[in-house]
Amino acid sequence: MGVTPRGASAGCCPPVPHGRCRNCLHSSSRSGSLPAAGRSPPPGPIASCWAVSSCTMCRGFMGWLIGMAINIHSDHILRNLRKPGETGYKIPRGGMFEYVSGANFFGEILEWFGFALACCTIESLAFALCTLFILGSRAKQHHQWYLEKFEDYPKNRKIVIPFVY
Ligand SMILES: NC(=O)c1ccc[n+]([C@@H]2O[C@H](COP(=O)([O-])OP(=O)(O)OC[C@H]3O[C@@H](n4cnc5c(N)ncnc54)[C@H](OP(=O)(O)O)[C@@H]3O)[C@@H](O)[C@H]2O)c1
Question: How far is the CA of 14 from the centre of ligand 1 (A)?
Fold first, then answer.
């Protein structure tokens, strides 16, 4: 009692050994047998699995939602840098631009990793990784360009992943 089994999940989900849960998710995704909305999950391991998969989906959905908000907010900042009739480029400031040069790209990357977490499929993970590499390389180009063009460009800004890269 009080001891979490090895491999069990933590946080808001009840402790379920991962192996058992994987089996559950596997069979549910094949048969589409997850409990219908509004109905209580059946008792026992299946109920625990249902709770764990719901938790994972909620976390993924939150990641996707936050990513989308960052993406929209950052694009909004970029599109409003120029006053009417102005051309050229300026240093973007505010929001996630205080942390990374590619804030809009970071938002999109977060979106797709959240989506992948919610879906738990190889295909969605592959899409998220492609987005990471494509937008990550664009962010790197932008970052280097900013550093060359603007002497006062904030040196503590990362490329695309806050505090990391
Ligand atoms: N899923 C994907 O694979 C994928 C691929 C590409 C884009 N996207 C998404 O599409 C959205 C837009 O992408 P994008 O490549 O067009 O972004 P972007 O190159 O950052 O440009 C967005 C807009 O802001 C302007 N802008 C950018 N930096 C500026 C600066 N320093 N000063 C003044 N204006 C600036 C750009 O003007 P200019 O046009 O004159 O540069 C453009 O109108 C993003 O949210 C991105 O995540 C997704």
Answer: 43
